[in-house]
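Reviewer 2 asked us to include a model.

Predict the structure of this chain.
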Amino acid sequence: MDDSELAGGILNQVPIEIAISVGRARPLVRELLKLRRDSVLTLDRRVDDPVELFIGDKLVARGELQELEGEQAGYLGVRLTEIIDLREAL
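Predicted model (structure tokens):
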């Protein structure tokens, strides 16, 4: 096994955190200061719009939110609908 195979094997074991963005809000500071429990902050997306998946600040995919079933009932997942070329993104 050469060094590149060893490094590839080790790197394949490193966990990566993916952040899912469902939308953004741009309230004014005075509106932000008025927020209380049960306040609703309007996002720039609709419920059916795709979510975006990021590794760091790099967009890597888009998808649809889904509620999981079976043993994972109640949890959210993302069904991928578009994957960005990861070699270019990272």
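The beta strands are 19-21, 51-55, 58-67, 76-83. DSSP finds three helices and four strands in the chain. We have added this to the supplementary material.
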